[in-house]
Amino acid sequence: MLWERARLHAPLKDLATGVREDREGSLSMLPHQARRNLMTRGKADTTLVGSVTYLAGPNLIEMRSNILLLMLGLASIVATSPAQGNSNHLSGETSPYLKRALSQAVDWYPWGPEAFQRAKELNRPILLDVGAVWCPWCSLMDRETYTSVATADYINQHFVSVKVDFDSAPELVAQLQRAQAVLNLPAGLPLTSFITPDGKLYFGAGYLPAEHMAGKPSFREAAEEALKRYAEKTEIEKESFQLEVARKP
Questions:
Q1: Cis omega (within 30 of 0) on the bond before 190?
Q2: Residues 17 and 115 occupy one common structural domain
Q3: Is the pLDDT of residue 42 over 90?
Q4: What is the full DSSP assignment across 4-26?
Q5: Does 39 share its domain with 149?
Q6: pLDDT at 14
Q7: Residue 51 lies in a domain
């Protein structure tokens, strides 16, 4: 390059410590140890003249650009990863179905007094999901509904959410299935129930698709109906099933 050849004829006092130059011609001094390291490594983008080391300006700029692109790429991966930074209340659970939901954006609680107390504080109904890792419809509903960020935001704004593993809580599941059967509601898996903060199961369903299909309501439609019924307290008193809230899975 012309600017490198021109510098070879510069006075030695200007070259004693080595010079780094970029495309705009800005100059900065390279310390002696840095020159030794560069010469030892023998980089392809470095020109060695005697004891003076030159870094090709365009290559240095390209290297900086590559580093910047790498940093932007890593930042985008972190920002779009649903598992990053998520924190619901299932971190201490050991059952497979609950462990699988740990990375979901829904603010799940395990069954217990803490969830019902939170529902009382917020005056919200409880959304209960009962499922199992071997249940294909449970897995489908997890993928379609509970891993959707938009749906999770909606759930977190209107409900206190509780998740129960079918295999880990047989007595509790039997009580829930009996309650839905008494109310003439689906009692298979997945079991989707809506419960008042004081433990009255008043509405429910089985598998709910993400979108309305073949006469089957979507999850959002069922959730809206549950909220409507929750607002009408007199109807809940007429038709609901009192659960044993203190019962542990």
A1: yes
A2: no
A3: no
A4: HHHHHTS-HHHHTT-EEE-TT--
A5: no
A6: 45
A7: yes
Return phi, psi of residue 214, to 5°. 50, 45
Asked whether residue 72 is assigned to any structural domain, the reply reads yes
C-alpha–C-alpha distance, residues 193 and 4, integer Å: 76
Task: Say if residues 188 and 135 touch (Cβ distance below 8 Å).
Answer: no
pLDDT (0 to 100) of residue 201 = 97
Average pLDDT of the chain is 78
Q: Are 107 and 156 in contact (CB under 8 A)?
A: yes
- What pLDDT does 141 receive? 96
**In the block, residue with structure tokens 């993928």:** 143
Alpha helices in the chain (DSSP H): 2-8, 12-15, 32-41, 57-80, 96-100, 113-122, 136-141, 149-158, 170-182, 219-231, 233-238
What are the structure tokens assigned to 155, written together?
């759930």
Say whether both 34 and 135 belong to one domain. Answer: no
Give me the DSSP letters along 155-167.
Answer: HHHH-EEEEEETT
| 75, 104: one domain | no
Average pLDDT over residues 218-226: 97
- The phi and psi torsions of 127 (rounded to 5 degrees) equal -95, 120
What per-residue confidence (pLDDT) applies to 35? 46
Looking at residue 149, what is its pLDDT?
94
Residues 44 and 103 in one domain: no
Domain range for 20: 2-80
- Here the tokens at position 60 are 């240095």
Question: Is 69 found in the same domain as 111?
Answer: no
Q: 1: which 2 tokens?
A: 């390059």
Instruction: Look at the chain and report how many structural domains it folds into.
Output: 2
Q: Are the beta carbons of 22 and 61 closer than 8 angstroms?
A: yes
